[in-house]
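queue> pop job 88
queue> type: inverse folding (structure -> sequence)
queue> payload:
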């Protein structure tokens, strides 16, 4: 596998993961009360706890995308002289 192939894979991974992050945010924004009701049937929690958990999960996902997809992609672009 060439470095160009790795670069392209990281680019598409970044695009797909950021799309999933935006989709998740939009769906949770639109259906937050419904999702909250479903989850409180399984696990008792306050609405503030639910909001903190969802915010933490989306934040951790975003940081993971940056660390494992976007930063390596940028590093490869810099090393290849196309940054």
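queue> result:
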């Amino acid at each position: 596998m060439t470095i160009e192939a790795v670069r392209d894979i990281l680019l598409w991974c970044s695009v797909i993961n950021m799309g999933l992050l935006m989709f998740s945010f939009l769906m949770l924004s639109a259906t937050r009360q419904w999702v909250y009701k479903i989850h409180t049937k399984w696990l008792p929690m306050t609405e503030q706890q639910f909001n903190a958990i969802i915010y933490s999960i989306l934040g951790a996902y975003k940081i993971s995308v940056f660390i494992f997809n976007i930063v390596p992609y940028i590093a490869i672009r810099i090393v290849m002289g196309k940054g």
